Structure formats: structure tokens, C-alpha cells
Amino acid sequence: MNIHGLQKMTLLDFPGRVACTVFLGGCDFNCPFCHNSDLIDGSAKPVMDDKELLSFLEKRKGLLDGVAFTGGEPTLRKDLADLFRSVRALGYPIKLDTNGNHPDRLKALLDEGLVDYVAMDVKNSPEKYALTCGLDSMDLRPVEQSIDLLLHCSIDYEFRTTVIDELHEHADFEKIGAWIRGAKAYYLQPFVDRDSVVYGSFHAPARSSMEMYETAVRKFVQYAAIRGM
Fold first, then answer.
1. pLDDT in tens, 134-150
2. Fewest 10 Å CB contacts: which of 4, 19, 62, 207?
3. Does the predicted model carry a pTM greater than 0.70?
């Protein structure tokens, strides 16, 4: 398996752990605000393969205590479970970032106990989901199934939304809150512009707006917070 990026150490990506972050190419969404746009179509050059990754992790035992997998969309990789088993064999807990569009693959990973923490993006309210994902239309049932899987699983998880002034408003967060009602944790993170964002003209909301959105969701979930502001 090709690995398209590796952050060798992070204190942010895997809550409560010193981890590395592994980037896998390919995604079935085309979010116009994506920071990893070169991973969407898999055009980014690989930096290593899975054997080199496992060798790196073997050498980092005692320094790292977790591995976070992100993308792109990791669950598109049919051999992801094999890689997770190998990482597990080295003694590392695993965090998975996902867009939730492949609930069958997410369920298989959860059922086998291969994941310790899942962070699922909830892009927007149902009516604006396809727009926010950069698609003309989409079937929301897979996303709904993944939400339901996490709401009823035994591992730690979070839902999160990257908030963009041009794409989100107060009513969206009322609807998101109702969608993920009872969730353990939900984070709002303001959009940050970077050179890797293909489409321009996006902005982060004002702090007052972020706080209003957080308040809207808070009544539906066990914990809500703003991250990165």
C-alpha cells in the first residue's frame, strides 16, 4: 500500500496520545475547502509504502503511543484492515478519520476491534451536504448509517465540522445537532485558508458566530467545543 504523507509526531491528531499521522490518497468527496486537495484524486506522490511505515513504527516504539490514519478517505483502501492488523501487532492504538460514506467498511473495522478512536466529519445539514462535499447530488443513507454506528459503539469517537462562513449558518447546526443527538463529543473547527485549498473565497466565521453555533449544538450532545480558535 502506498502512503502519501507522514507526520512523524503530533500531540493534536489523536486525543490524549503522542501519535504520528498517516495520510492515504484518494477520496470520494471533492470538498472545495479541503486542505489535502492533492490527496483527493490520489495524484500526490507516495512518500513510502506500508512496509516502510511499519519499519518506522517499529523504531518509534516507546516514543509514540498511537497512529492516526487520515486522507483522503482511508476506508476506500480495501487492504486497510490488513495494515491495521500489522500496526496493532506492533502494539499501537489506532485512530481513524473518515467521511462516513462507507459504513460497511467502518463496521467491519469496529467489529474486529481494529480501531480505538474514530473522528467522523459531519459536513453540513442534510440539505446542504452534497454542496459542501463538492458533489452535484449524493445518497445520505451511508452517512446516516455511519453516524448511527458510532452513536451505538463502545469506543471513543467524535463528530466534527469544519465551519465556513459561506457554507454554514445557524439553522444548519440545529439540524446537525438533531442528526447526532446523544453523541459523546462534537467539535466545530473554523476554516483555515492554505495554499493547498484549490477553491478561493472561503472564510472562517467570526468568533461570535462560532460560539452561537456551538450553543445551538450543545443541547443535543454530551460535549461540544470549538477547536482551533
1. 999 999 999 999 999 99
2. 62
3. yes
